[in-house]
Amino acid sequence: LEEQFRQAQKMEAVGRLAGGVAHDFNNLLTIINGYCEVLLTARPHTNSDRVAAEAIRDAGDRAAGLTRQLLTFSRKAIVEPQVLDLNEVVTRSAKLLGRLIGADVTLATAPSPDLAPVRADLNQLEQVVMNLAVNARDAMPHGGRLTIETRNVRLGEADVPAYPDLVPGRYVQLAVSDTGEGMTDEVKARVFEPFFTTKATGRGTGLGLAMVYGVVQTHGGHVGVYSEVGVGTTFKILLPATTEARPGNRPDEQAPVARGT
Ligand code: ADP
């Protein structure tokens, strides 16, 4: 618990700092990227001008992506909760992932039918799945299997001691597994720390899992990591199921459940 508290404090402090910097930085990037577009559409210009402007634009886009991550992680991003089906998030992410993983990594999705809906921010959840999946890919440089699964979970009184941040009730579980290199206990203990990375400079920011942690906390959920060196890693996320109906569902498709249970 002490460790959890320290982690929460650290996240809060770094989050505040990062959020402030990212916000100002984003405004500056808007100016840089905007004028760069102006340069690229202005004619005539030489080939080397164009190459230079394109390099600026690409770096600007990458920087914008990074500040977006920082903002999400610092919780300054607008949270737009809606009732949604986690299976749809998985399907959408899987489409994007098809282009990100190499041919030697197979992607398997196992969406559970009759999955309970969750109340969550679609973009943030998609980012969560992507961060976990990209880490999984990075852990399998020689290929392997990336699996994304969902299922309904019910936590009883007997189960909650294993999840100090949760109360008994209905949850939806998202599990992202890989058959990659796994991690040592030392690494495992630090993965959610902001800026902790074992990747080469320029390849890792150490913010991916800190962001995952932040988003899951904001949603009242839990994230756990199970890993074995040389075997692989599984990240499991539990999000509270909602009893609200999804908009667009026909009344006869709605489960007859009471609110607030
Ligand atoms: P980054 O990916 O930029 O390093 P993350 O916060 O996403 O930042 O991850 C932190 C560290 O956790 C990684 O550098 C890596 O050492 C470890 N890690 C995360 N996911 C996995 C995984 N699926 N398998 C092995 N190690 C992992």
TrEMBL record:
Record domain Histidine kinase: where: 20-243
Protein name (record): histidine kinase
